[in-house]
Design brief:
The protein is α+β, with helices and mostly antiparallel strands and 408 residues long. It has helices spanning 17-25, 31-46, 53-60, 66-76, 82-93, 157-160, 163-169, 181-196, 213-222, 254-259, 334-357, 368-399, 402-407, and strands at 100-109, 119-123, 128-141, 147-153, 203-206, 227-231, 236-239, 252-253, 262-267, 283-291, 308-314, 324-327. The two termini are 43 Å apart.
């Protein structure tokens, strides 16, 4: 496979892309699969603009059949992406100081009805109902930039109940059933924990446009996870503390309860948040203890529902735009909680970069495995671009003679 340079500057750096590809994709059983994994990674890193398979192939090979081979590798070749994500997680953890697991969502507009998971859905970013795929990703968030380490695609019942569609899109049995967004997030958290065997980090998720926020909170709590979750402002909650026991507790919108609550300290906007206050202009954080109402049909009176802290920044003229967060970290300071919400803002920025520079939305195939193959390769390219050069620079600093370090 002849490789040539594209017009976009691409410097693999001290940490060789060949070594990285071998570490992450070296488990693939065939040499041609490993070769095309490397080629796809290099294409994602080197190709400017839209990342079609044809353009990726042209960036890394002069062969007229490279495009066909690359498409075959991503969309049709039966390789398991789980080991690649496990290796990528370990590679990332060796080069970062993790702070949180963050959840990001991606809406991929599509024409036609043939791509796996395509359905009509309201997109809050555009304010329109669009024909799209809807993906959920989990990121390892650090003090600098989050790295994606796992993905799920939402499959409406049209795709899971139709045997013909399932067979055509190669949807596995394990992905069939009622799998709403909250269940996908919980599965991602469980999977990342099992892949890394590390102590679970706080989960930071924005469910403010989702009706399943309460389900996610309950699920994370049952799993023993710390969490900070943005919820719809109208989410019905009960005042915190112990239930009255007379059946007179009345649910109220969480935003109303928070803005009737107490001040919780003065804090700046989280780093990277839109509308952040200028330096030296802190904003008041309001908070209230809340409980979730018991689910219909649940046994009542057996246990006291847990109390959470709901909080939001008070920003004059922007109250309606400020998200309301719910957390089980009731003993954390205002500064610690706002720092965690900042990881969500950085994840939103990382998703934009993945879409604009790494072809997140550019998968051209239609199969379930193909979608996951593409998202895994995009994640690996992003991680390499963000961490390989930094790791090499750190190693170079360590390897310098002592006299050089002192003179610097």
């Amino acid at each position: 496979m002849a490789v040539h340079h594209s017009t976009r500057p691409f410097t693999p750096g001290t940490a060789s892309l060949v070594s990285f590809a071998e570490e992450v994709f070296g488990y693939l059983p065939r040499a041609d699969q490993r070769r095309w994994a490397h080629a796809y990674l290099e294409g994602l890193l080197a190709t400017p603009g839209k990342k079609t398979v044809r353009r990726l192939a042209a960036a890394v090979s002069a062969s007229p059949t490279a495009s066909q081979s690359l498409h075959q590798f991503v969309n049709a070749s039966p390789w398991d992406w789980g080991p690649a994500l496990r290796s990528l997680a370990h590679w990332t953890l060796r080069r970062t100081v993790p702070r949180a697991w963050t959840i990001g969502t991606v809406v991929v507009p599509k024409r036609g009805e043939s791509s796996v998971g395509v359905h009509r859905r309201f997109d809050p970013a555009s304010g329109r109902t669009v024909n799209c795929q809807f993906g959920v990703g989990i990121f390892l968030s650090t003090d600098t930039e989050p790295v994606p380490l796992g993905w799920r695609i939402l499959l409406p019942s049209r795709w899971t109940d139709d045997d013909t569609l399932r067979e055509r899109a190669r949807i596995p049995e394990s992905s069939v059933g009622d799998r709403p967004a909250s269940a996908q997030v919980l599965d991602l958290v469980h999977t990342l924990h099992s892949r890394t065997a590390a102590t679970p980090l706080p989960v930071v998720a924005d469910m403010s446009s989702c009706t399943e926020a309460a389900s996610l909170i309950r699920g994370l709590d049952r799993a023993g996870c710390d969490f900070v979750v943005a919820v719809p402002p109208a989410l019905a909650v009960l005042p915190g503390g112990r239930p009255r026991g007379d059946g007179q507790d009345a649910p109220v919108p969480v935003r109303r309860l928070v803005y009737q609550g107490d001040g919780f300290g003065e804090v700046p906007a989280p780093l990277g948040a839109p509308g952040a206050a200028p330096a030296g202009q802190p904003r008041r954080l309001l908070n209230a203890l809340v409980r979730l109402p018991e689910r219909p049909g649940a046994r009542t009176g057996t246990t006291t529902p847990p109390a959470y802290r709901a909080f939001a920044r008070r920003v004059p003229g922007r109250q309606a735009d400020e998200p309301v967060w719910v957390t089980n970290l009731t003993r954390h300071s205002a500064e610690e909680l706002v720092a965690l919400t900042g990881h969500h803002a950085r994840t939103t920025g990382a998703l934009r970069t993945l879409e604009d520079d790494f072809g997140l939305r550019d998968f051209e195939g239609r199969s379930f495995p193909g979608w996951h193959h593409h998202m895994t390769l995009v994640s690996a390219a992003f991680a390499y671009s963000r961490l390989a050069d930094a790791a090499a620079a750190a190693a170079a600093r360590v390897d310098r003679p002592l006299a050089v370090v002192r003179s610097a």
